[in-house]
Amino acid sequence: MSGPARFLRDNGLSLVFGAGFLLSLVGQAVAGCAELNTVLTSASLAPVGCADYVLTSDYLVDVTENWQSEFLQFFLFVSATVWLVQRGSPESKPLDRIGRESDEEQKTGAYARPDSPVSASAGGLRQGLYSNSLGIVMGLVFVLSWLAQSVTGRVTFNEDQLREYQEPVDWVTYVTSAEFWNRTLQNWQSELLAVASMVVLSVYLRQRGSPESKPVGAAHTSTGVEG
Questions:
Q1: Cα dist. 167→67, 68, 95, 151, 179 in Å?
Q2: C-alpha span between 67 and 49 (Å, rounded)
Q3: This prediction's pTM
Q4: At what angle do helices 57-83 and 133-163 cross, to 10 degrees?
């Protein structure tokens, strides 16, 4: 297999989802720009170009609102599955491995293998940070996305306030408003429902060949077994 073909095979999952993400981002920009221009035209205002639209708070608040809910989902799932299990689900660890597990099970410290990441064999703070790096990064991106959503959302909210000849609000007032939490919780509940559905449905349903599913013939009670 040639170099490019092997690269595409070895990275197919990230490449396909990455391309889908970029296409969706562009599609959202085009559709959002068209929607905004419809509103502007009806108000006898000049339309904006798509290049200008992607820099507006209208576009950025929608993007960051979706990002923060997605990364919250993964942060909670990564963290919760350390301590919580679901009998029969491939999304869960085996029932007897609840917790952070031993150095031997995690292949850290003296149990690190020759091909283990360097930080796995290191001690102290370096190993501690690396041992929790996935959750830390997911949590950090969630917090930054949430802050970005709150800032861009406030700008959009104040633009609407000014159009209606009402006073703009400060950041604290906006993030404690019903409008902000209505938008935020709409996304949170859908993401948490999706995770809960995957955890429970994967106990009884199968997808042949997928690592997110148990083997087709595995018992419903088999836990932490991937196809």
A1: 29, 28, 56, 17, 16
A2: 24
A3: 0.86
A4: 150
